[in-house]
């Protein structure tokens, strides 16, 4: 264990300015704000050449041990405490031995209402914006724990006489030390190489870092000690990560899903139907329906033209057709999906225009022609990333009518609630740069939506779940009024 880690467990109440003084002392003397319990443990035990798979940072410990009954003054100290850590480079999205980020811990503890949670979300937004610039200019990023010389921090042996007989006493004169050997209870490394493929990686010594203050119910504590579910990201060339690879991968339509045939990646699933209905309704929300009825038979102002990017299972396209648009453009690139569309008669519908290809190519053609504009544009593709969406925004502003609406399936970071909320803010910021104002309508996503008729999870038949949030943030973007 380390002094910094001890401090983040708030061993003494009330939480006072003394905590701030001690934190500044440790950080100014070279202890990184991202120094992990795993790194301290491995150093204490002389474990080398074994890279921990988890990163239990000071921020994790704060979120685990922040008291439920904070006074207003204590709340202010905690806020200041976290602000300082972020100033020194604390990471907002590292995952600990339970595969939780700091924000995940607060959500599990029912503490989303704390300003601390919003600080974590805001840190995530800042980090993404900075990373984007770093990537843009090909700058080198140096981890702040790279090259850390643990021995220079010194080794702490609590001296009871100097600490008034209490190992929990906090004093600004405490040693600069990071590692406290008295906490070692297991001589094996936290992360064993062979355990990378599974197994319980929660060492007893790390479990202790997640003991609560006794204020939470037993179930919450037990959940902390459960086996972590650590998923390794797919290879960059996997169909789920690489668009070219995806387009070369065979797909399969099942009763309630579209999946990659061999890997079982969930491309689209029937549970999304209610969300698709929100999207379909949004595409027509900028249309003056009364004028459309009066002008039926006329062409110019009564035309309603919409574009859906990504056909998938055709859920939203069937909903769009039920609203009788004048022109319904569908952009789809995957050959298996295009074959399904031909088989189901989509190419033969009088008001449907199928753009067979990647939207990056097909929308470029529409922009060049300059004679097609949309009342609504919807986007829902597979194996694309947020940077692809940023590129799409360039086309949206060029193809959307002045009163048009842009929307999309908002699954950005939806496998973690805190990341989902980070991207909610990022989308608003980025769309504002294009003169679009995005409002999010909140809709509950009940857990039973993910159970089939046999009371089994719908995720059992796909490679992994891509949704774990209780609320869907439905985006509706329109040009700003100036």
UniProtKB/TrEMBL annotation:
Q: Which GO terms describe its biological process?
A: methylation
The principal localisation class reads cytoplasm
SUPFAM superfamilies from the UniProt entry: S-adenosyl-L-methionine-dependent methyltransferases
- According to the entry, every stretch annotated as the RMT2 domain falls at 237-482
Known Gene3D superfamilies for this protein? Answer: Vaccinia Virus protein VP39 (3.40.50.150)
What is its subcellular localisation? Cytoplasm; Nucleus
Which superkingdom is the protein from? Eukaryota
The record ties this protein, via CDD domains, to: AdoMet_MTases
Keyword S-adenosyl-L-methionine annotated? yes
Please indicate if the UniProt record lists Cytoplasm as a keyword: yes
Q: Which GO terms describe its molecular function?
A: protein arginine N5-methyltransferase activity
InterPro entries registered for this protein in UniProt = Arginine_N-MeTrfase_2, RMT2/GAMT_Mtase, RMT2_dom, SAM-dependent_MTases_sf
Name the UniProt key words of this record, in alphabetical order: Cytoplasm, Methyltransferase, Nucleus, S-adenosyl-L-methionine, Transferase
| One CC-aspect GO term | nucleus
Q: What is this protein called?
A: Protein arginine N-methyltransferase 2
């Amino acid at each position: 264990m380390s002094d910094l880690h001890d401090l983040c467990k708030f061993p003494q109440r009330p939480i006072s300015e003394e905590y701030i003084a001690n934190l500044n002392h440790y950080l100014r003397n070279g202890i990184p704000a991202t120094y992990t319990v795993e790194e301290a443990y491995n150093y204490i035990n002389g474990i080398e050449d074994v890279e921990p798979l988890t990163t239990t940072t000071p921020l994790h410990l704060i979120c685990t041990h922040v008291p439920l009954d904070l006074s207003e003054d204590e709340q202010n100290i905690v806020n200041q405490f976290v602000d300082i850590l972020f100033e020194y480079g604390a990471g907002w999205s590292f995952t600990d031995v339970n595969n939780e980020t700091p924000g995940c811990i607060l959500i599990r503890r029912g503490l989303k209402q704390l300003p601390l949670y919003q600080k974590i979300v805001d840190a995530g937004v800042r980090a993404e914006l900075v990373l984007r610039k770093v990537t843009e200019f090909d700058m080198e990023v140096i981890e702040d724990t790279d090259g850390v010389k643990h021995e220079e921090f010194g080794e702490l042996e609590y001296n009871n006489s100097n600490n008034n007989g209490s190992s929990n006493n906090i004093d600004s004169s405490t040693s600069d030390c990071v590692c406290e050997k008295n906490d070692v209870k297991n001589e094996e490394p936290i992360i064993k190489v062979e355990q990378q493929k599974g197994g319980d990686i929660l060492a007893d010594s790390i479990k202790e870092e997640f003991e609560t203050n006794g204020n939470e119910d037993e179930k919450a504590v037990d959940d902390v000690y459960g086996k972590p579910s650590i998923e390794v990201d797919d290879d960059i060339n996997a169909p789920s990560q690489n668009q070219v690879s995806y387009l070369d991968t065979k797909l399969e339509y099942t009763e309630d899903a579209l999946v990659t045939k061999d890997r079982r990646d969930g491309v689209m699933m029937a549970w999304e139907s209610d969300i698709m209905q929100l999207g379909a309704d949004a595409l027509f929300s900028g249309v003056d329906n009364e004028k459309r009825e009066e002008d039926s038979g006329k062409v110019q102002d009564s035309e309603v033209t919409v574009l859906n990017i990504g056909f998938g299972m055709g859920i939203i396209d069937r909903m769009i057709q039920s609203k009788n648009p004048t022109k319904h453009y569908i952009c789809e690139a995957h050959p298996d999906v295009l074959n399904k569309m031909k088989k189901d008669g989509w190419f033969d519908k009088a008001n449907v225009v199928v753009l067979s290809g990647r939207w990056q190519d097909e929308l470029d053609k529409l922009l060049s022609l300059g004679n097609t504009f949309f009342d609504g544009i919807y986007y829902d593709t597979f194996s694309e990333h947020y940077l692809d969406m940023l590129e799409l925004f360039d086309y949206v502003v060029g193809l959307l009518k002045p009163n048009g609406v842009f929307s999309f399936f908002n699954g950005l970071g939806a496998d973690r609630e805190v990341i989902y909320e980070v991207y909610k803010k990022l989308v608003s910021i980025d769309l504002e740069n294009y003169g679009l104002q995005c409002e999010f309508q909140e809709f509950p996503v009940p857990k039973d939506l993910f159970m089939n008729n046999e009371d089994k999870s719908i995720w059992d038949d796909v490679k992994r779940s891509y949704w774990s949030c209780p609320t869907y943030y439905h985006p509706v973007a329109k040009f700003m009024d100036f």
